[in-house]
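Long-time lurker. I teach an intro course on protein structure, and each term I like to show students one example going from raw sequence to a predicted 3D structure in token notation. This year I'd like something fresh instead of my usual example. Would anyone be willing to generate the tokens for the chain below so I can use it in lecture? Attribution to the forum is fine with me.
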Amino acid sequence: MIKVYETTLPGVKKIERLLSRDHRGFYAEIYSKEAYFQNGITIEFVEDDFSFSKKDVLRGLHGDSKTWKLVSCPFGKLYLVVVNNDPASEYFGKWEAFILTPESRLQILIPPLYGNGHLVLSDFAMFHYKQSEYYHGQQEQFVIPWNDPRFNIPWPVENPILSERDGGFNQ
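-- Reply from a regular --
Happy to contribute to a lecture. Here you go:
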């Protein structure tokens, strides 16, 4: 069972998943095609990926023109930012931030032409995402600098750990 909520960004949806708790911990379903299709999310996902990172690692902001992503955090705590990167959209440059944890049960559905990036807030965290397209390398993606002055995104870190691609140096 899921509940689907609109966000301030067209096409971006916040999804709350069912969670079962007992004395051992909790159990949560990551994805059920039937439940999502019943709620109007009829995207065919073809690939699952994840990254595992340490505190203060900032990955992104990345995206492309054709891939839908369904993202979640099965371990740790993430600060996720989703930004509209469609210059033809009246929402170009608009962004929204979300806190993702296993306990929050949240997933974020991200349409094509939106960039997303995440910052690890806990000691370690896992970022999980389902994709509607197969990944064929970073050459097919756009990259928005994490500190792009056009968007003025306030990240809760002063000196994130970045890849060279994301504006950092080998660390």
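Some talking points for your students: Residues 2-143 form a domain with the Jelly Rolls fold (CATH 2.60.120.10). The chain has a mean pLDDT of 94.
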